[in-house]
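Researcher: Watch the backbone:
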Amino acid sequence: MRILIFSSYKDAWNSVRPEAEMFIEMVKLGHEVTIMTQGDADYVARFRDNGIKVIDAYPSKKICWTTIKTLRAELRAHPYDIVYAMNSKTIPNAAFACIGFKRTKLVTYRGTVGGLYRHDPTAYLTHLHPRVDGISCVAQAVTDDVKQRVWRHKDRVVTIYK
C-alpha cells in the first residue's frame, strides 16, 4: 500500500515519537510511506534512515496554495492509496489537493473532544470536508463525539489508539 503522511514533526521528540514510529513500522511491514513535513524537522533524518521518502512541504496557513500544488503534483506523479492528514493546517490543504483523485482515500486524525460543530463553516475545511473519506480518532470518547457531528458514513469514524 502506498501511503502519504502529511504532518508536522517540529516538536519535542516525546510528543511526535509515537506517531512517527508508527509510520516507520508501516515501512517495516512492507508499505511504501512518504511524509510531507518541514524539511528541517529533527525526525527527518530518522525517517530517511528507515527508507521513508520525505517531501519538504508544510503549509504556512490553513489554505496554502503552494502546499496544495506540491501535494497535487506528488499525487499526479505517484498513485497513492491513502493520504493521511494529521492536524488543523494539513487537513484543509490535503482535502483541497485530493479533489479529483478518486483512487486516493483521504483520512484525517482527530485527537480532541469538542470544537467540531456542523454550524461552524470552518469545520467544512477539516473533518466535515466532503472530500474526507475517513476519520481516525485517538480515543473512544473522541470517536463518539465525532460520530455525532458527521452527516453520513458514521462507520468511517474509527478509534485507533497510539
